[in-house]
Amino acid sequence: MASGAGGGTAATERLIRSAQKSTNQLKALLAGGGGGGGRSSGAVEVILADISDSLSQALASLMLRAACDDQSLPAAAAPPPPPEASLLPSYGQCVVANSGGRSVSKRKAQRRSRADGSSRRIILELGDRDDSYLWRKYGQKDILGARFARSYYRCAQMLGCTARKQVQQSDDDPSRLEITYIGLHTCGGDRPSSPVPTNPADGPRCDAATSSHRLLPSALQQKLEEHVPAASDDMMMACTPSWLFIPSPACSQSELLSEGEVPELRVVRQEPYDPVELVEEHKKPSDADEDSLALHDSVVPDFM
DNA sequence: ATCGGTTGACCGATCCA
DNA sequence: TGGATCGGTCAACCGAT
């Protein structure tokens, strides 16, 4: 929480200006006829990534600020999460109310601190994407009000690792999976990028025949690492060209989060990132085209 | 034989009358 | 306050490799 609302506003403005700048670059590039062939195409991709990055961050910042305003939950009022327990330390100090879709009962939300001490939670709503850890499924449960059952996984990379995750198909968009991470990885890394080689050429760490392990693309990892620290200075928002963090609507923090907890984060896939080889096993064939369309639509957020 | 997913049962937290 | 409800977990079972 390095900056308050004012800092967030300034940062948002910077991000939008950055997007504008990149847009102009793109215009110039396209006006030039794209004669550069592959080189030009690469440049376009880079610029698009920049634009999307900036816009996503700006949007996230705006969304969070709006949420905070609505909730009258001063971010500074919440106790800071333990640094070692935070993937995104300052995130979600403001939490919006349940925003429709599947109803999230108070009971459900309050249970989150039950399992172990590290009740902090990150919700990744990333469709068919997976992280780099090895998970073993240990249960599945029909959830009241949810169309799809929730699956429960625990980290199987090392015996005794306390990390777990819950995977549930989105009611709103069945092609998307909502992944909730609970607890810390005691198997050597606190976040998915840690145990993963940053070079995709290194290949998967695990047996390719096992569906549970996939790599987080190195580019995405780098982006995460770049943006996560920045996010705490920036209204606690972060995103990458492919991911947008928004506060989870699942709970009201003041009511549901005990001291030391880190509120939920929701990551919504916003635009193209296509590590096809990494996600193929979860990819539903019928979703491929749909995804692609949606991605293009979301390159420029609506608020622009 | 081993590994991992499925599924029914159970436990405990929370809700509500 | 106690029964009802529900989410989370356990563990036996089964299929795939």
TrEMBL record:
Record-linked Pfam families: WRKY
Family annotation (SMART domains): WRKY
Localization terms from the record: Nucleus
The keyword Transcription appears for this protein: yes
Ranges of residues in domain WRKY: 124-185
SUPFAM superfamilies: WRKY DNA-binding domain (SSF118290)
Domain of life: Eukaryota
MF GO annotations: DNA-binding transcription factor activity; transcription cis-regulatory region binding
Keyword Aminoacyl-tRNA synthetase: no
Primary localization class, coarse: nucleus
PROSITE patterns, sorted: WRKY
A GO CC term attached to the entry: nucleus
Keyword tags: DNA-binding, Nucleus, Transcription, Transcription regulation
Annotated region described as Disordered, given as residue ranges: 188-207, 279-304
Segment forming the signal sequence: none
Protein name, per record: WRKY domain-containing protein
